[in-house]
Design a protein that fits this description.
alpha/beta, TIM Barrel, 9-stranded mixed beta sheet
Length: 427
Amino acid sequence: MHHFAYRRGVSHKNVLHAEEVDLADLASAVGTPFYCYSSATLERHYRVFADAFAGTPGTLVCYSVKANSSLGVLATLGQLGAGMDVVSEGELRRALAVKVPPERIVFSGVGKTRAEMAFALNTGIFAFNVESEPELRALSEVAAELKRTARIAFRVNPDVDAKTHHKIATGKADNKFGVPFAEAPSLYALARELPCIEAAGVHMHIGSQITDLAPFRNAFALLKELVASLRAEGFAISFVNLGGGLGIPYRSDQPAPPSPADYAKLVQEEVGGLGLRLLFEPGRMIAGNAGILVARVLYVKQGAAKIFTIVDAAMNDLMRPTLYEAYHEILPVVEPASGTPTIVTDVAGPVCETGDYLALARELPELHAGDLIAVMTAGAYGAVLASEYNSRLLVPEVLVAGNRYSVTRPRPGYDDMLAKERLPNWI
């Protein structure tokens, strides 16, 4: 569910609104393209997930910052009690900037630097998700130098196929993430011998946009087996981090993915009897449907074999269609009148790449230069992947709450873009 819907606008036409904000008016005020996020949707999705585990004391829902790191989004979720899952010092600093308590933050990622480890240790985060023996040894050395203890969970790779896109699968043996399941016991034994390491948890995250509960069940069964064997060896395992990955609906003509309630039922069946604190790292499930990308049609071009609708948003603004062959529904911001003809068109951007598109061979109401479109379900892995490719300005971000809006990341000017660079002193 999201809070984007057609409502009667001041033009007496049905206009797509973000909560109570008219997106046509917002486009006039902010310019296009821009991202728009709904506070009500963020809040609802967080609460639906958190409430599914309300009967399990101590549960910590750590929003995955990499999905959408806008400070407005993070602050909205932090005020609801969310923790944060970070994968860099920059993301950790973002979480701290919006006053998320460090004891609600976990640090993931396969390539943490020693400087990042030191910063996180001095900050006092809850735990590190450790992904290799070299990382473990480095963390022990850094913690010893700082005279601090690093609480850890090994991220264990169960070699489970999550049945998702190959670029967002993380739980198979040929993925870079985690430690092999068979090697986990020896690594926990090593952690017990190293100074300043507290091996207190087990972590698994098998991928993203998972729409079938079976891979979760298979992974959690292995996790339960590992926890039992570690306890038998005397390890005081106090928490399990089950990652994220629950899929969301990107198109209305396909079955809905499992709900958080369905997922919670599975979690309780598989690991609920362990008596451990449960941690989760949802990202897309919270932010995905809470955001859209609004763009304006520049030209409608009749090619030799197809029609191209050229808009002012491009692959540098929304990378997912090019990177993952991802499908995003596209809606005209002004609802078409009954009987408006449709066309089959590629929706493409201005970037000088054949791969610069938002949709291919899409049936849409006939559009014209100046019309506005909304690219739906763009709240996760949208703005965070944006770049200045072709020296295009970064897209602004807007957060809506009821009838109010705030530009949380303004569109920079060309002088701002150029000012970030320096000519070499010999020129």
